[in-house]
Structure formats: C-alpha cells, structure tokens
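Usage example:
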Amino acid sequence: MNTLYENLGSATGISKMVDDIVEAHLNNPVIRARFLPYLEKPERVAEIKKHTCDFLAAGSGGPETYTGRSMPETHRGMNISEAEYMAVIDDIMGVMEKHGIDESARKDVLAITYALKGEIIHQ
Amino acid sequence: MNTLYENLGSATGISKMVDDIVEAHLNNPVIRARFLPYLEKPERVAEIKKHTCDFLAAGSGGPETYTGRSMPETHRGMNISEAEYMAVIDDIMGVMEKHGIDESARKDVLAITYALKGEIIHQ
Amino acid sequence: MNTLYENLGSATGISKMVDDIVEAHLNNPVIRARFLPYLEKPERVAEIKKHTCDFLAAGSGGPETYTGRSMPETHRGMNISEAEYMAVIDDIMGVMEKHGIDESARKDVLAITYALKGEIIHQ
Amino acid sequence: MNTLYENLGSATGISKMVDDIVEAHLNNPVIRARFLPYLEKPERVAEIKKHTCDFLAAGSGGPETYTGRSMPETHRGMNISEAEYMAVIDDIMGVMEKHGIDESARKDVLAITYALKGEIIHQ
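Running the assembly step on the lines above writes:
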C-alpha cells in the first residue's frame, strides 16, 4: 500500500501543489491580504514554500526533514480566524482535486489539517 | 466490511451521539445563542434531533429515510459563519471520539461535513 | 436647537431612509442572506420597516411609540456577528450621508447604535 | 470651546489612556494574541505607544506630529477582522469612560475610529 507521501506525488507532486496553493491564496479574497506583503520579498515566498513542502512531506511519511518553526510558533501573533483557516483548507482541497489526488488521500489531508487547527487558529 | 452506518453504531449509536451533540452545542459559547430559544420548545428540539438522526443514518448507508428540508433550505436566512460551522464540527468530532468511534469513521464524517459546507455557511 | 428626530427629517425623512437601508441590506453581501427569506413575505418586510421607523423615531425624540420587541428579544437566536453588525452600521451611515443628514446627527446615530451593540451581537 | 485634544486631557491624559488601552488589549481575548509577541520586546511596545499617542494627539488638534506609517501601511498584512476592530473600539471606549472623558469627546473619538475603519480592516 502506498504511503500518503506517495499518494500526494512525492517531492515533485507536493512541490507543484504548494506552488498552486500559494497562487490560490493570493487570489482568495479572505486571505490574500496576509500574503500581499510577501510579493515584494520573493525570497521569503521561496522560504515559505520550502518549509511547507518539507512539512507536508515529513508529515505524510516522506524522507524530508522539517526544519521550520512549530505550528503555534509559525502562526504566533497572527490571530488567524476560523474563516481564514477554512479559506486555506478550501484552497488546499481545490488544488489536490485539480492535481488528481484521490479521495482517500484528500480525506487524510483534511483530517491532518483539522487535527492541526488548534495550533493555527487564534495563536 | 462495515458500512459507515454500522461504524457509527447504527440507529441506537447515532441517536445517542445526536443527544450529546445537541448538549455540546448548548454549552459551546460560539453557537449556543442559536439554540437557546429552542429550550422553551422541547418538541422543536425533538424534531431537530429526529431529522438529524435520519440525515446521518440515510447519509451513512442506513435504512432510514430523511424527510426533512434540504441543507440550504434548513439553513436559509441563518447566515451561519465559518466560526459557527467549525464549532459544530468540533462538537461532532468530540462526541464521536467520546463514543469510541474509530478514526476511519471520524475521517469519513469530517469529509462529509466538509463536503456539505457550501450548503450550510452563509445561506 | 433641533432634536435628533428633526435632524433626521422627522417621520417622513426617517421612513425614506429606512426604505433605503433595507434596500442596502439586500445588496450587502455580508448580511443579505439574513433578509432574502423575507422577500417572499412583503407583509413581514413592511412590519420590520414600521418597527424600525418607530424605534428610530422614539429613540431620537419623536412622538412615535415603539411597540416592537426589545432589542435582545428581536435578535434572539440570530447570533449576529461583529461583521454583520458593522455591515448594518455601514449601510445606515451610507444612507444617512446620501440623504444629506449632517455630521453631528450622523455622529449621534453612530453613538446610539454603538451603545446598543451589546443587545444586538451574539444574542 | 475646548479642542478634542484638550477634552482628552492633552499629552498627559492621552498618554495615560494609551497605557490603559494597551493593557486592556492584552486582556481582551479577541485580540490579545496579536499583542502577546510584543511582551518580549518592551522597546517595540514603547514605540507603538509613542506612535499611538502622537497619532491621537495630532488627530485631535494637538501640537504633536505623527511620524509613523500611514494607517493602511501600519495594518498591512494583518487582515484585521471586524471582530478585532470592534474589540479595539470597545477597549478605547471603556478606557475613555474610566478616565472620565465626557460623552461628546467619546462620540468624536468613536466617529474618528469609524471613519478610519476602511484603512484598518482587511488590510
């Protein structure tokens, strides 16, 4: 049986999806304001993408190591609302579907992001 | 392999969980205001519980028939926010865990409630 | 010195503004969902407008008597969010400006609606 | 007739209120998460207080000059919600009342903060 990492397309598949997720966030009216300042700092966007890829890879059974900050630390001081959290989930789910990720893997990712909710919202 | 209906404890298990979910909603500061007026109308609470049981049963592969209104119709005019939707999910997830529902069935329910989101929020 | 009632245009002025405020609410994406069900019940809209006129008139020093329910009772079970409350204020302020109500009277209305916030939000 | 600046207690009065407002924000569950990271950076808190004092003083007719960033620039990337904005207003109004600021001056401040809303929310 495949690992979730494999079902997400391994490093290459995850990286392509993270590109599209960031793009979706920039077009999502609920959360785009959070990302607009980064447009002037492409190196910061690249760093965020790298951390996100490693986080997803490590969390789905891949060989990568996540070296970024903890979830609460990453979102500290942002006071992310439920509406913003849902917007992120919507973008992730939409991109996974577009990339042909099967329903079982999408369910796994939904469950993982739900489990992380308490470390993301209102930090 | 069991159906989701069986994994949720069939009619009896679902009914007990719906009792606890309504109880949890009444204690959840984010959504309790929506339910307080019903405390004076126990017959309305009984009706809501009945519809919820049938909806869950029918949607999880049970023999029950759901005769209530459609999801958008049920929530029409309520303008339910993302925070309220998340509060409902939290109560459902917490009750399922308390009732010993296994992870796979909880994932299924999370995915079903996520799929229904567009028919619940901001109607 | 004029009363606030007079500065709002007395019964006629208030009534015209209430018409425009309800119209603005129906076009405001944050709150229109709350009002859409009323479109099928014009007599309910007429009643809401009548109560709103009387409430504003009585509260601004006019001779009208408000016979509707109390603020908390009116909003009971609605769980109105801060965003919805702000949308209502925005519509009221915009209509008052459009109707040429002077700054001092608009300030008074803003202060009154702010004072009522606790009886409107999350009831 | 006094200026708003004088009605707010001039530089000394404004400075004392800003201290109390920041304290109130740190105890307000809706927005405290935004301010917690600053607790480790007292020099940053001092800078925010200084800018806030100058902003209020300059905006109320005092001789101070505001040298901080523009409102949209200050809130850029924060995606402040309506609920957070209302929490800030509540803290400001509560502190002004505690400091014995008269109703007319409180109304002026409410109107000013309302006028700034579009430069604060969802930037």
